[in-house]
Amino acid sequence: MRLHRSTITLLAAATITPSALAYPVFSTPAAGASVPAGTISVAWTDSGSPAISTLTTYTLTLIVGGNDDATQLPLTAIEAQGEFSTGNTASGTVTAGLAGSTANGFFLKMVSVSSDGGTITTYSDRFTMTGMTGTTPATYLDAVTALDGSTAGPALVDDVSTDSSATSAAAGGDMFTIAYNLQTGLTKYAPMQPVPPTKITAKTFTPLFPTSAYTIATTWMPQASILTTITESQTFSVSSMENTATAQANPTDDGSDMAKFLRRWKD
């Protein structure tokens, strides 16, 4: 039997191309939808084969801003410790004061952990949050305006490892990427502490993260609900070695007052 050249090419590609990992495809909210502030419902479907069951846990965050990381502002965690085994829906609460009602300025970011190790990050299409009473910072608002009304969210990011030993590290690693004030539950995760530079070059103060909303207490507050904070392990390391330089010789006995003073303590 003779095979057409195009058939041979397809067979060769199938032989050398590894199977792609399935990932969630958001179905709700739909592209360009208007979602009122308050309770938000999220749903997704399976992208294909292999099954989405190869993914274990996920985090789901509401974002406002552009398609680049530098222009994306996380607003709230819809689900901080979700499990795919419980289904393909999630829900959370969006506080009206988190941002302004920017048209098609909002989207969802899901970081999914693979049972093979590593993560895969998917984004929903853009939609509008109505009834928002806050203010969106200019940097993120300008990034939305630059998209000229597009409802397409950022591109998928595939960081899945083929090394199964990375699974345990990935299971907790994604939590460190969520802003501390957006996390829920009794245990929270803090990012790796930065290493101080050897020189101070900054001339002006610039915050590492945007400010978060707060409410001034007018009555006694309840006891703290956070039991544990886990900080990401520091990868910075230092090494030291013995100083092999010859020690400086002792002062000579020159009859000076200092020499006499030092001899006094030899007894």
Task: Describe how the helices and strands are arranged.
Blueprint (H helix, E strand, L loop, with lengths): L4 H12 L7 E5 L5 E3 L1 E9 L8 E11 L6 E12 L5 E6 L11 E9 L3 E6 L4 E3 L7 H8 L11 E4 L6 H7 L13 E4 L37 E4 L25 H8 L3
Parallel strand pairs: 2-9, 11-12
Antiparallel strand pairs: 1-3, 3-6, 4-5, 4-7, 7-8, 8-10
| Poorly predicted spans | 1-19, 162-173
Q: What is the helix content?
A: 10-25%
Strand segment tally? 12
CATH class of the domain at 21-192: Mainly Beta
What's the overall geometry?
elongated
**N-to-C order of helices and strands:** HEEEEEEEEEHEHEEH
Major beta sheet, strand line-up: 5-4-7-8-10
Nearest-integer average pLDDT = 77
Radius of gyration over C-alpha positions, nearest whole angstrom: 28 Å
Largest sheet: 5 strands, antiparallel
Number of helices: 4
DSSP strand content = 25-35%
The second-level CATH architecture of the domain at 21-192 is Sandwich
Characterize the quaternary organization of these chains.
single chain
Could you tell me the CATH topology label of the domain at 21-192: Immunoglobulin-like
Instruction: Report the structural category.
Output: alpha+beta
CA distance, first residue to last residue: 106 Å
Describe the structure.
This protein is an alpha+beta fold and 267 residues long. It has a domain at 21-192: Immunoglobulin-like. It is 13% helix and 28% strand. The chain contains 4 helices and 12 strands; from the N terminus they run αβββββββββαβαββα. It has helices at residues 5-16, 138-145, 167-173, 257-264, and strands at 24-28, 34-36, 38-46, 55-65, 72-83, 89-94, 106-114, 118-123, 128-130, 157-160, 187-190, 228-231. The strands form 4 sheets. Strands 5-4-7-8-10 form a 5-stranded antiparallel sheet. The longest helix has 12 residues, at 5-16. The termini are far apart.
